[in-house]
Design brief:
Layout: H1 14-43, E1 75-81, H2 90-102, E2 107-111, E3 142-147, E4 150-155, H3 158-166
Parallel strand pairs: 1-2
Antiparallel strand pairs: 1-3, 3-4
Amino acid sequence: MSKRVRKEKSYTSDSDEMTRMIKVLVFVLIAFGAFYLIFAIARGEISFGGKKTKEVEIQNVEILAGETLNRTDSEYYVLFFDFKEDKTGKYENLYNMYVNKTGLRNLYLVDTSKKFNANYLAEDETKIVTNSIDDLKVVSGTLLKINAGNVTTYKTNYEEVKTLLFG
């Protein structure tokens, strides 16, 4: 006896195939939309609360040591100290007291712990040089008074720094 293999042909219409394609496309778009929504909410791009505006503050108080002598003010001060070592905040408080008392913003801060400023650090107070920016060497806790791009006075003791700022 001969066996006949019966082949069934599946006929689908173009409209059935198009419908399946549209369903897959819609599913993919919904999935991408859901992922975007989840990540946008997680990153804070989308918020369901009221609009919270963030005030932008331009920071021009902290400068690099290499910018010490090129400020536009005719007379100003530059205070060098290690921001990380100032645990009590005495130098930061000194800055705030100066700004509150004088109303001036001519006191600039240099973070001596940053790598960019490492070339300007002296080993000790006997090695301080203030002739030019190329030779500039200071220790942490130094205040420079600068007039017309030249260092006129410097102090390395906290009490002397305070006296120079407040008279």
